[in-house]
């Protein structure tokens, strides 16, 4: 079985070796099998198959949360879990076999390897330990991390995670400013309302309680109850403190955080669309170059095949054209068959049509004027016999 890179026409051996070195960086004897596995792992069918397997795994994990169903179908769930784990392992081994060096350069592959390692660790730790209910539940909860493998096979999720990684730095600045604001208001709130005797010690008695109260205020969750407790303790003027913090914490910093996330998502989406357009243009350009190179090779072959029976190259081309069907493409060197001439000829035809339309409009106007003049002349002129009688 020959690989796709080896059978494509017009590709030199150096280019083929360069393409193969992208996923087979070192010299190996199974380059054809390596290229076949690379095409298989990158095929849409394999991607859809892995998405279906991950989805089925998610469904099984959700069904196992039912205690009765898990108790009656424990063997089925154990076999299904072992089968899915074996599929994940096979995928990992195939990708590692295709390119063991470049595999670890991709962050998504490292995430898959970490998830697979954790799955084996949890599977080994839970084998024979079903009596420990809490450890089993914790292990099952951590096995839900397998669903993160879906990120690699979903372009939308990859864009989102990439945007999250790019906006971490900007978001950290916003979070630091929000923390400084909460720190200042926590100290201020503790000093104003955290008196052990007359204050609200439950919400403002220490820094931990003050931070938790300010977190509730910044999310605008139950802030009316917190304000009511302050009023019940006699802090009537606490409205200004609560309103100022909500305005700064929620309407400024919290919405700023959301705005940064939205902007980064839009930038990542636009960048992904630009990359897709650039990839399409590069693919089209590569196809054009391949076609041109193939045509040039065919022309060179025709030049080399001149014999005594064909006295000239034009005669050889004419005889070759006679053997073609109407659906075959031919190489022509006539001026009238060139694309620039056809484009120029169509432009001239358009100009001629436009000129003819204008001339027709002009003739209609002239005809209308002449008709009006003739009607006015007939109305004003008298019959000849009447003139003679006068």
Could you outline the blueprint of secondary structure elements for this entry?
Layout: H1 4-7, H2 13-21, H3 31-41, H4 44-63, H5 67-72, H6 74-98, H7 107-126, H8 133-143, H9 155-166, H10 168-193, H11 201-204, H12 207-218, H13 223-232, H14 238-304, H15 313-322, H16 339-380, H17 384-389
Helix pairs in contact: 3-6, 4-6, 6-7, 7-8, 9-14, 10-12, 10-14
What are the main properties of this structure?
single chain, mainly alpha, disordered C terminus, 390 residues, disordered N terminus
Structure report:
By secondary structure, this protein is mainly α. It is built from 17 helices and no strands. The protein has helices spanning 4-7, 13-21, 31-41, 44-63, 67-72, 74-98, 107-126, 133-143, 155-166, 168-193, 201-204, 207-218, 223-232, 238-304, 313-322, 339-380, 384-389. Helix 3 crosses helix 6. The radius of gyration is 40 Å and the shape is flat. The model is unreliable at 1-25, 128-133 and 386-390 (pLDDT under 50).
Let me know the average pLDDT: 75
Assign a percent range to the helix content: over 70%
What is the percentage of strand-forming residues? under 5%
The helix count comes to 17
Rg computed from alpha carbons, rounded to a whole number of angstroms: 40 Å
Main sheet record: none
Low-confidence stretches: 1-25, 128-133, 386-390
Order of helices and strands: HHHHHHHHHHHHHHHHH
**What is the approximate shape?**
flat
- How far apart are the termini? 114 Å
Structural class: mainly alpha
- How many strands? 0
